[in-house]
Write the C-alpha coordinates for this entry.
Amino acid sequence: MIRPEVDLSVTLGRIAMKNPIATASGCSGYGEELARFFDLSLLGAFVTKSITLKPREGHPPPRLTETRAGMLNAIGLANVGVETFLAEKLPALEAFRVPVIVNVAGSTREEYVEVAAALDAAPAVAGIELNVSCPNVKEGGMEFGVEARTLAGLVEAVRQKVSRATLIVKLSPNVTDIAATARAAAEAGADALSLINTLRGMAVDGWTGRPALTNVTGGLSGPAIKPVALYMVRRVWQEVAGPRGVPILGLGGVQFVEDVLEFLRAGATAVAVGTANFVDPETAPKLVEGLREALGRLGCGSPRDMVGAMDLPK
Ligand SMILES: Cc1cc2nc3c(=O)[nH]c(=O)nc-3n(C[C@H](O)[C@H](O)[C@H](O)COP(=O)(O)O)c2cc1C
Protein backbone atom coordinates (compact mmCIF):
# COMPACT_ATOMS: atom_id res chain seq x y z
CA MET A 1 0.00 0.00 0.00
CA ILE A 2 1.25 3.49 -0.78
CA ARG A 3 1.25 5.49 2.43
CA PRO A 4 -0.13 9.01 2.20
CA GLU A 5 1.75 12.07 3.46
CA VAL A 6 0.31 12.66 6.90
CA ASP A 7 -0.62 16.22 7.83
CA LEU A 8 -1.10 16.21 11.62
CA SER A 9 -2.43 19.76 11.92
CA VAL A 10 -5.81 20.43 13.54
CA THR A 11 -7.65 23.50 14.78
CA LEU A 12 -9.27 23.87 18.17
CA GLY A 13 -11.49 26.93 17.97
CA ARG A 14 -9.08 29.57 16.63
CA ILE A 15 -5.99 27.73 17.83
CA ALA A 16 -3.89 26.29 15.00
CA MET A 17 -2.20 23.18 16.39
CA LYS A 18 0.59 21.56 14.38
CA ASN A 19 -0.54 18.21 15.77
CA PRO A 20 -3.40 17.04 18.02
CA ILE A 21 -1.26 16.34 21.12
CA ALA A 22 -1.41 18.73 24.08
CA THR A 23 -0.44 18.55 27.75
CA ALA A 24 -3.18 18.33 30.40
CA SER A 25 -3.62 20.99 33.05
CA GLY A 26 -1.74 20.47 36.31
CA CYS A 27 0.53 17.73 35.04
CA SER A 28 3.45 19.83 33.80
CA GLY A 29 3.24 23.14 35.67
CA TYR A 30 4.11 26.16 33.55
CA GLY A 31 6.35 24.27 31.16
CA GLU A 32 9.85 24.82 32.56
CA GLU A 33 10.22 21.32 34.01
CA LEU A 34 8.90 19.58 30.89
CA ALA A 35 11.18 21.68 28.67
CA ARG A 36 14.17 19.94 30.30
CA PHE A 37 13.03 16.75 28.58
CA PHE A 38 12.04 17.93 25.09
CA ASP A 39 11.45 20.96 22.87
CA LEU A 40 7.94 22.13 23.76
CA SER A 41 7.40 23.45 20.23
CA LEU A 42 6.89 19.80 19.24
CA LEU A 43 3.53 19.92 21.03
CA GLY A 44 0.23 20.90 19.45
CA ALA A 45 -0.47 23.03 22.53
CA PHE A 46 0.65 23.47 26.11
CA VAL A 47 -2.02 23.69 28.82
CA THR A 48 -0.92 25.32 32.09
CA LYS A 49 -2.00 24.31 35.54
CA SER A 50 -5.04 26.16 36.95
CA ILE A 51 -4.45 29.87 37.56
CA THR A 52 -6.48 31.76 40.16
CA LEU A 53 -6.71 35.47 40.99
CA LYS A 54 -4.42 35.27 44.05
CA PRO A 55 -1.52 32.87 44.63
CA ARG A 56 -2.49 29.64 46.40
CA GLU A 57 -0.44 27.21 48.49
CA GLY A 58 -2.81 24.32 47.86
CA HIS A 59 -3.55 21.47 50.27
CA PRO A 60 -0.91 20.17 52.71
CA PRO A 61 0.91 16.96 51.64
CA PRO A 62 0.43 14.12 50.99
CA ARG A 63 -1.60 15.34 48.05
CA LEU A 64 -0.80 12.64 45.48
CA THR A 65 -1.13 8.89 45.79
CA GLU A 66 -0.92 6.00 43.35
CA THR A 67 -3.92 3.69 43.04
CA ARG A 68 -4.42 0.54 40.98
CA ALA A 69 -4.25 1.70 37.34
CA GLY A 70 -4.49 5.32 38.36
CA MET A 71 -3.57 8.21 40.57
CA LEU A 72 -5.48 10.28 43.11
CA ASN A 73 -4.63 13.95 43.65
CA ALA A 74 -5.82 16.74 45.86
CA ILE A 75 -3.36 19.49 44.99
CA GLY A 76 -5.84 22.19 45.93
CA LEU A 77 -5.04 24.53 43.03
CA ALA A 78 -1.55 25.52 44.17
CA ASN A 79 -0.43 28.26 41.75
CA VAL A 80 1.38 31.60 41.50
CA GLY A 81 -1.72 33.72 40.83
CA VAL A 82 -2.56 35.55 37.60
CA GLU A 83 -0.32 38.59 38.17
CA THR A 84 2.88 36.59 38.63
CA PHE A 85 1.80 34.19 35.89
CA LEU A 86 1.52 37.04 33.38
CA ALA A 87 4.72 38.75 34.53
CA GLU A 88 7.00 35.73 34.92
CA LYS A 89 5.60 32.44 33.63
CA LEU A 90 3.90 33.52 30.39
CA PRO A 91 7.00 35.19 28.83
CA ALA A 92 8.99 32.00 29.48
CA LEU A 93 6.24 29.87 27.93
CA GLU A 94 5.97 32.22 24.93
CA ALA A 95 9.65 31.65 24.22
CA PHE A 96 8.92 27.93 23.70
CA ARG A 97 6.89 28.79 20.56
CA VAL A 98 3.93 26.59 21.37
CA PRO A 99 0.27 27.67 21.52
CA VAL A 100 -0.43 28.37 25.19
CA ILE A 101 -3.77 27.47 26.74
CA VAL A 102 -4.17 28.84 30.25
CA ASN A 103 -6.42 26.89 32.61
CA VAL A 104 -8.47 29.14 34.92
CA ALA A 105 -10.05 28.31 38.27
CA GLY A 106 -11.99 30.36 40.77
CA SER A 107 -14.28 30.26 43.75
CA THR A 108 -16.71 32.92 42.51
CA ARG A 109 -18.01 33.86 39.08
CA GLU A 110 -16.34 37.28 39.48
CA GLU A 111 -12.96 35.66 40.09
CA TYR A 112 -13.16 33.60 36.88
CA VAL A 113 -14.21 36.70 34.92
CA GLU A 114 -11.36 38.82 36.28
CA VAL A 115 -8.70 36.21 35.61
CA ALA A 116 -10.06 35.38 32.14
CA ALA A 117 -10.24 39.09 31.18
CA ALA A 118 -6.61 39.63 32.25
CA LEU A 119 -5.53 36.62 30.18
CA ASP A 120 -7.56 37.65 27.13
CA ALA A 121 -5.63 40.93 27.15
CA ALA A 122 -2.33 39.02 26.80
CA PRO A 123 -1.74 38.16 23.11
CA ALA A 124 0.55 35.25 24.05
CA VAL A 125 -2.46 33.41 25.48
CA ALA A 126 -4.04 31.43 22.63
CA GLY A 127 -6.73 29.75 24.69
CA ILE A 128 -8.46 29.97 28.05
CA GLU A 129 -9.67 26.69 29.54
CA LEU A 130 -12.17 26.98 32.39
CA ASN A 131 -11.72 24.43 35.16
CA VAL A 132 -15.31 24.31 36.36
CA SER A 133 -14.69 21.56 38.93
CA CYS A 134 -14.28 24.19 41.68
CA PRO A 135 -16.76 24.87 44.49
CA ASN A 136 -18.96 27.92 43.95
CA VAL A 137 -18.26 29.52 47.33
CA LYS A 138 -20.84 32.33 47.09
CA GLU A 139 -23.77 30.24 45.88
CA GLY A 140 -24.06 27.11 47.98
CA GLY A 141 -20.65 25.52 47.53
CA MET A 142 -21.61 23.11 44.76
CA GLU A 143 -19.09 22.86 41.91
CA PHE A 144 -19.70 25.26 39.00
CA GLY A 145 -19.67 22.40 36.51
CA VAL A 146 -22.29 20.04 37.92
CA GLU A 147 -25.49 21.96 37.26
CA ALA A 148 -26.27 23.15 33.73
CA ARG A 149 -27.77 26.52 34.71
CA THR A 150 -24.92 27.50 37.02
CA LEU A 151 -22.41 26.48 34.36
CA ALA A 152 -24.22 28.46 31.66
CA GLY A 153 -24.19 31.56 33.90
CA LEU A 154 -20.44 31.24 34.44
CA VAL A 155 -19.59 30.65 30.79
CA GLU A 156 -21.80 33.54 29.63
CA ALA A 157 -20.16 35.92 32.09
CA VAL A 158 -16.65 34.88 31.05
CA ARG A 159 -17.56 34.94 27.35
CA GLN A 160 -18.50 38.63 27.63
CA LYS A 161 -14.92 39.44 28.65
CA VAL A 162 -13.12 37.00 26.36
CA SER A 163 -13.22 38.22 22.78
CA ARG A 164 -9.83 37.21 21.42
CA ALA A 165 -8.68 33.95 23.00
CA THR A 166 -10.37 30.62 22.25
CA LEU A 167 -12.66 29.79 25.16
CA ILE A 168 -12.59 26.13 26.19
CA VAL A 169 -14.82 24.73 28.93
CA LYS A 170 -13.40 21.70 30.73
CA LEU A 171 -16.27 19.45 31.73
CA SER A 172 -16.52 17.52 34.98
CA PRO A 173 -17.35 13.80 34.77
CA ASN A 174 -18.97 13.98 38.24
CA VAL A 175 -22.42 14.67 36.76
CA THR A 176 -25.61 12.78 35.96
CA ASP A 177 -25.55 13.60 32.25
CA ILE A 178 -22.47 15.11 30.65
CA ALA A 179 -24.47 16.02 27.51
CA ALA A 180 -26.53 18.47 29.60
CA THR A 181 -23.52 20.40 30.90
CA ALA A 182 -21.82 20.20 27.48
CA ARG A 183 -24.92 21.72 25.88
CA ALA A 184 -25.08 24.48 28.49
CA ALA A 185 -21.42 25.37 27.89
CA ALA A 186 -21.77 25.35 24.10
CA GLU A 187 -24.93 27.45 24.13
CA ALA A 188 -23.32 29.94 26.50
CA GLY A 189 -20.52 30.53 23.99
CA ALA A 190 -17.73 27.98 24.50
CA ASP A 191 -15.55 27.68 21.37
CA ALA A 192 -14.41 24.20 22.40
CA LEU A 193 -15.01 21.61 25.11
CA SER A 194 -12.40 19.59 26.96
CA LEU A 195 -13.24 16.42 28.82
CA ILE A 196 -12.79 14.83 31.23
CA ASN A 197 -11.50 16.29 34.47
CA THR A 198 -10.78 13.82 37.29
CA LEU A 199 -13.39 11.53 38.84
CA ARG A 200 -13.91 12.05 42.57
CA GLY A 201 -12.36 9.26 44.64
CA MET A 202 -10.77 8.26 47.93
CA ALA A 203 -8.02 5.95 49.20
CA VAL A 204 -7.72 4.74 52.78
CA ASP A 205 -5.33 2.36 54.54
CA GLY A 206 -7.58 -0.49 55.63
CA TRP A 207 -5.26 -1.48 58.52
CA THR A 208 -4.79 1.92 60.11
CA GLY A 209 -7.88 3.72 58.82
CA ARG A 210 -5.69 6.62 57.68
CA PRO A 211 -6.65 8.32 54.41
CA ALA A 212 -3.90 8.39 51.80
CA LEU A 213 -4.48 12.11 51.17
CA THR A 214 -4.59 14.86 53.81
CA ASN A 215 -7.66 16.18 52.01
CA VAL A 216 -9.20 12.66 52.34
CA THR A 217 -10.84 12.82 48.90
CA GLY A 218 -9.17 13.55 45.60
CA GLY A 219 -9.46 13.33 41.82
CA LEU A 220 -8.84 10.00 40.08
CA SER A 221 -6.87 10.09 36.81
CA GLY A 222 -4.85 7.80 34.55
CA PRO A 223 -5.65 4.53 32.70
CA ALA A 224 -8.42 3.69 35.21
CA ILE A 225 -10.61 6.51 33.86
CA LYS A 226 -10.01 6.10 30.12
CA PRO A 227 -13.17 4.07 29.34
CA VAL A 228 -15.27 6.66 31.19
CA ALA A 229 -13.58 9.47 29.26
CA LEU A 230 -14.08 7.72 25.91
CA TYR A 231 -17.76 7.16 26.64
CA MET A 232 -18.25 10.78 27.63
CA VAL A 233 -16.37 12.14 24.62
CA ARG A 234 -18.54 9.96 22.37
CA ARG A 235 -21.75 11.10 24.04
CA VAL A 236 -20.81 14.80 23.93
CA TRP A 237 -19.66 14.51 20.31
CA GLN A 238 -22.90 12.82 19.24
CA GLU A 239 -25.31 14.98 21.20
CA VAL A 240 -23.70 18.41 21.26
CA ALA A 241 -20.28 18.99 19.76
CA GLY A 242 -20.62 17.14 16.44
CA PRO A 243 -23.89 18.78 15.34
CA ARG A 244 -22.67 22.25 16.39
CA GLY A 245 -19.14 21.93 15.00
CA VAL A 246 -17.60 22.52 18.43
CA PRO A 247 -14.26 20.73 18.71
CA ILE A 248 -13.42 18.45 21.64
CA LEU A 249 -10.09 18.17 23.45
CA GLY A 250 -10.26 14.63 24.86
CA LEU A 251 -8.36 13.48 27.92
CA GLY A 252 -8.32 10.83 30.59
CA GLY A 253 -5.71 8.08 30.57
CA VAL A 254 -4.01 8.92 27.28
CA GLN A 255 -0.63 7.18 27.29
CA PHE A 256 -0.16 5.16 24.10
CA VAL A 257 -0.83 5.89 20.43
CA GLU A 258 -3.79 3.50 20.50
CA ASP A 259 -5.36 5.74 23.13
CA VAL A 260 -5.04 8.72 20.79
CA LEU A 261 -6.70 6.80 17.95
CA GLU A 262 -9.51 5.76 20.31
CA PHE A 263 -10.19 9.35 21.43
CA LEU A 264 -10.18 10.59 17.82
CA ARG A 265 -12.64 7.87 16.83
CA ALA A 266 -14.83 8.70 19.82
CA GLY A 267 -15.08 12.29 18.58
CA ALA A 268 -12.10 14.25 19.89
CA THR A 269 -10.24 16.63 17.57
CA ALA A 270 -7.19 16.67 19.84
CA VAL A 271 -6.07 14.94 23.05
CA ALA A 272 -4.21 15.97 26.18
CA VAL A 273 -1.71 13.94 28.20
CA GLY A 274 -1.82 14.20 32.00
CA THR A 275 -0.93 11.38 34.36
CA ALA A 276 1.21 9.61 31.71
CA ASN A 277 3.70 12.49 32.09
CA PHE A 278 4.50 11.16 35.56
CA VAL A 279 5.41 7.80 34.02
CA ASP A 280 7.41 9.20 31.11
CA PRO A 281 7.77 12.97 30.64
CA GLU A 282 8.46 12.38 26.94
CA THR A 283 5.08 10.73 26.35
CA ALA A 284 3.64 13.64 24.36
CA PRO A 285 6.39 13.98 21.69
CA LYS A 286 6.47 10.18 21.39
CA LEU A 287 2.72 10.23 20.71
CA VAL A 288 3.21 12.82 17.95
CA GLU A 289 5.60 10.54 16.09
CA GLY A 290 3.55 7.44 16.92
CA LEU A 291 0.42 9.06 15.54
CA ARG A 292 2.13 10.04 12.29
CA GLU A 293 3.25 6.44 11.85
CA ALA A 294 -0.14 4.98 12.84
CA LEU A 295 -2.13 7.23 10.49
CA GLY A 296 0.25 6.34 7.67
CA ARG A 297 -0.35 2.66 8.36
CA LEU A 298 -4.09 3.23 8.34
CA GLY A 299 -3.83 5.05 4.99
CA CYS A 300 -5.26 8.16 6.65
CA GLY A 301 -3.80 11.54 5.64
CA SER A 302 -5.08 13.54 8.60
CA PRO A 303 -6.32 13.04 12.17
CA ARG A 304 -9.29 15.21 11.11
CA ASP A 305 -10.53 12.28 9.02
CA MET A 306 -10.61 10.04 12.09
CA VAL A 307 -12.81 12.28 14.26
CA GLY A 308 -15.91 10.30 15.22
CA ALA A 309 -15.09 7.50 12.77
CA MET A 310 -16.28 4.27 14.38
CA ASP A 311 -17.26 1.07 12.63
CA LEU A 312 -20.49 0.48 14.51
CA PRO A 313 -22.48 -2.75 14.48
CA LYS A 314 -25.13 -2.68 11.73
C1 LIG B 1 -1.53 16.00 39.67
C2 LIG B 1 -2.68 16.52 38.87
C3 LIG B 1 -3.00 17.87 38.91
C4 LIG B 1 -4.08 18.37 38.18
N1 LIG B 1 -4.35 19.70 38.21
C5 LIG B 1 -5.35 20.20 37.45
C6 LIG B 1 -5.61 21.60 37.43
O1 LIG B 1 -4.92 22.40 38.08
N2 LIG B 1 -6.68 22.02 36.69
C7 LIG B 1 -7.44 21.18 35.93
O2 LIG B 1 -8.36 21.62 35.25
N3 LIG B 1 -7.18 19.85 35.91
C8 LIG B 1 -6.18 19.35 36.65
N4 LIG B 1 -5.92 18.00 36.62
C9 LIG B 1 -6.73 17.11 35.78
C10 LIG B 1 -6.05 16.77 34.46
O3 LIG B 1 -5.81 17.93 33.69
C11 LIG B 1 -6.89 15.77 33.65
O4 LIG B 1 -8.15 16.33 33.36
C12 LIG B 1 -7.10 14.44 34.35
O5 LIG B 1 -5.99 14.09 35.14
C13 LIG B 1 -7.39 13.30 33.36
O6 LIG B 1 -6.32 13.10 32.46
P1 LIG B 1 -5.14 12.02 32.70
O7 LIG B 1 -5.80 10.73 33.03
O8 LIG B 1 -4.37 12.01 31.42
O9 LIG B 1 -4.33 12.53 33.85
C14 LIG B 1 -4.85 17.47 37.37
C15 LIG B 1 -4.52 16.13 37.33
C16 LIG B 1 -3.45 15.63 38.07
C17 LIG B 1 -3.12 14.16 37.97
